[in-house]
Structure formats: C-alpha cells, structure tokens
C-alpha cells in the first residue's frame, strides 16, 4: 500500500465545502445522560478542523457513534439472539436505542473546544442536512447525525455515498481523518471518494508517516512486542513482522498457547488448542529467519480470575491445575526490558497481563516504563495497549499512540486499508 497520500495542505480549500470524516466514536456514560467519558478522539480531530476553518472552508463533519441498528427487524433479531423477549421489543424501544447514540453530546463538546457554534443536522443526508449544508458559509462548521443511522453506511451503498458526497457540492473536497475507521470500506470512509477529490487530514497523515515509516524503513533494531489474549487475533501481524523485525517479544494470554505447544503445563490458563501447531511453526520460522523470538521464562499465576486472588510466581510451563497465568514474571520482565534498551524502533500491541487488576499490572507497567526510558521510536498500536499506557501514566513519553486499534492492527499486518487506499497519491 502506498503511504504517500495527499493531505489537506496539498489542495486549495478556500471557499469550498469540505466533507470531513472524523472519528467521534467516543464512550458515553451508561446512565443515559449523554456525558462523554473520554474526549480524546474529539481533541485529536481539532488540528485538522481548525486548519480547514482558518483556510476558509465550510466544514461538513461526519462520524459514526456506537453500533446503532438502523433496521427495526434486524434490531429485533439481534435482541432476540441476546435472549430478550420478542414481544417486548417495540418500535418505541428501538427508537430509544437510536436516540442514545445521537450526535448532540459531540456537537456540544466540539463547539466548546473550538470556541464557535457547531450546527447539528437532524439527519445524515435528509432534508435538514441538505438545507444546512447548502447554507453553510466559509469558516462555519456543521455536524451530520450518526452516519450509521443510515442502512447504506456499513454496506457502502453507492446511492448513499453519492448523496453524502453531494452535500459538499460539485467542487467539494473529501478529507479523511478517522484513522480508527479506515480499515472498513464504508460509505463515509471509502465510498464518497468516488465522487470527491479525497485527501487525508493531519491525524491520518501522522499515522501513515509514523507507523508506515516504521514498517517500510525502520530505525533498527526493530523490536515488536505482542501481547493480548489470543494468538489467532495476531496471526497476520506475527507473519508480517517475521519479515521485518529483529526481535519479537510475546506476552499476555497468548503466551500460554506457545507454552502448551512446547509441552508445558499451563493449568487453567488461556489456551487456543487449535493454534499450537502454528505457535511451533512460528518459533521455527523465526529461527530460520534469524529473528530473535522471546517467550516468557516465568509467570505470575492466580487461583482465580479476580483482583484479590492468591498469587505465586512459577517457571514457564509449571503452572499447576486450578491456577492460571495472569502476568509475566519478574525474570521475564528483566528479559523483555533489556531487549528494548538498545532498540531503534519499538512497536507494541497488546498488554503483558491483566493490567486492569493491580496485582497483575506489573509486567505491562515495567514494559511501558522501559519504553519511556529508551531512545527508540516507540509506537503503541491502539486498543488495550494504548489504554494501558494512558492508565499507567506513560502516554506522554511515547513517540506515537495510534488512534485506531483495529486499523493499526491491520496496518501492521500489511493489509490494504480501504479508507487510505481511496485517497489521492502525492
């Protein structure tokens, strides 16, 4: 995939309407108050928005929020599959589920952060959005309703994409700045690029330059740290990094599949039995390619998956029945931290243990601290790794924290990202 894409600075936006795809999929309080509990994604969009407004563009921002089901019958089916009584699933309840994912809280907070009004449309491509977009003047910004309120969004419906692009007019421009959504070929992330010149915003530009640069021409040695619960979710990344990395470090729940594959006892630890052969093949392939593969040498085990469980440290492959591994052990911590000391580039995706529980956060915290002290380019691949680094207080010490969990994972797999492939090449 070509990472060298045109940005907002490569086009003249003055006096034009810009359809701007943001990632405003922010978490909302569960009490139904509409309170935004983490506004990082809104803040991340501000540099591109401010640039467009200062350059005299009229900005039509759009985003999805949550996972609304715009089809009543499909909503009933999904709720029934979750065990809900079909007789109790009324159209009123369906509409209420949609109301909880309207863009009002985002528009309000965005307006406060920008220091100017943000006009909110009552629909996505309906009469209200069309009228407000037509009347929008340079230097003004409006926000469409949740793009996933439209059935055509997730299926990349050509008719819906054409209507969405049409809001920007015949000489409009499409700017993509929602890195967290570029791995999806949706109407607002890819389809609209068939109708408007498409360029990236500053957020996507940064992701492409830093992660793309680390994969295409890394400062060596390149160390990849892979954690999380499942080997199966990281196969593509592992295969791709075996061609690129100098060292690959394995932690988290997926390490126990490697341990079991080598004949170790893992007690009640996470195990993907079907992936043991793959784990052994990976060890063999790493040796053939001269890639240093580091696996845990000891582990912190618990007698229950609970924050107050009893704990012990045992050697890898010696976990007794009734116990489960929930973090890397102290010897493994030293091994892994030593491995990143002299790295040129470190890519980290997935925590080392159950960092949400204080007792099992030591491994993840130690790796985060080691990354904060190294002179390497440090890239955190979104998702749980990003949450861990933020929670543990090391976010400002990292070179880059990706804004897209799934997107960064597919990026690191070497997959083509539809929302990036559709942008104009430089």
Characterization of this structure:
It contains 15 helices and 17 strands. Helix 9 (255-261) packs across helix 10 (276-289) and helix 11 (330-341) packs parallel to helix 12 (362-373). It has 426 residues and is of the alpha/beta class.
Number of strands: 17
Helix content percent band? 25-40%
Low-pLDDT ranges? none
Distance between the termini: 13 Å
Looking across the biggest beta sheet, what order are the strands in?
A: 3-4-2-1-5-6
Summarize the biggest pleated sheet: 6 strands, parallel
Kindly provide the radius of gyration, computed on alpha-carbon positions and rounded to a whole number of angstroms.
23 Å
Number of helices: 15
Given helix and strand content, the structural type is alpha/beta
Mean pLDDT: 94
Which range does the strand content fall in? 15-25%
How would you sum up the global shape? globular
């Amino acid at each position: 995939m070509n990472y060298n894409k045109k940005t907002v600075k490569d086009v003249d936006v003055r006096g034009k309407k810009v359809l701007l795809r943001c990632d405003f999929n922010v978490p909302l309080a569960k009490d139904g108050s509409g309170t935004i509990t983490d506004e990082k994604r809104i803040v991340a969009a501000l540099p591109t928005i401010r640039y467009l407004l200062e350059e005299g563009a009229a900005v039509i921002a759009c985003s999805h929020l949550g996972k609304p089901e715009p089809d009543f019958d499909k909503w009933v089916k999904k709720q029934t599959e979750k065990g809900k009584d079909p007789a109790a699933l009324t159209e009123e309840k369906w509409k209420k589920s949609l109301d909880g994912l309207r863009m009002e809280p985002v528009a309000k907070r965005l307006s406060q952060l920008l220091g100017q009004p943000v006009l909110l449309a009552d629909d996505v491509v309906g009469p209200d959005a069309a009228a407000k977009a037509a009347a929008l003047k340079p230097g003004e910004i409006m926000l469409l309703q949740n793009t996933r309120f439209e059935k055509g969004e997730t299926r990349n419906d050509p008719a819906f994409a054409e209507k969405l692009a049409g809001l920007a007019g015949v000489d409009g421009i499409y700017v993509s700045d929602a890195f967290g959504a570029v791995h999806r070929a949706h109407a607002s992330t890819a389809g609209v690029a068939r109708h408007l010149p498409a360029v990236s915003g500053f957020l996507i530009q940064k992701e492409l330059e830093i992660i793309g640069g680390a994969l295409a021409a890394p400062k060596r040695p390149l160390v990849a740290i892979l954690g999380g619960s499942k080997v199966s979710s990281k196969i593509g990344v592992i295969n791709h990094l075996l061609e690129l990395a100098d060292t690959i470090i394995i932690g988290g729940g997926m390490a126990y599949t490697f341990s079991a594959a080598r004949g170790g006892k893992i007690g009640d630890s996470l195990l993907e039995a079907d992936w043991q052969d793959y784990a052994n093949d990976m060890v063999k392939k790493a040796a053939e390619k001269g890639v240093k593969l580091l696996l845990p040498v000891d582990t912190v085990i618990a007698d229950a998956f609970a924050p107050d469980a009893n704990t012990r440290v045992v050697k890898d492959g010696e976990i007794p029945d009734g116990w489960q591994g929930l973090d890397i052990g102290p010897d493994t911590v030293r091994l892994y931290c030593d491995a990143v000391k002299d790295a040129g580039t470190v890519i980290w995706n997935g925590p080392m243990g159950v960092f949400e529980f204080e007792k099992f956060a030591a491994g993840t915290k130690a790796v985060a601290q080691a990354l904060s002290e190294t002179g390497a380019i440090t890239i955190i691949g979104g998702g749980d790794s990003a949450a861990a680094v933020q929670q543990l207080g090391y976010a400002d010490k990292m070179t880059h924290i990706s804004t897209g969990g799934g997107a960064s994972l597919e990026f690191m797999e070497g997959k083509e990202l539809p929302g990036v492939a559709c942008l104009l090449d430089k």
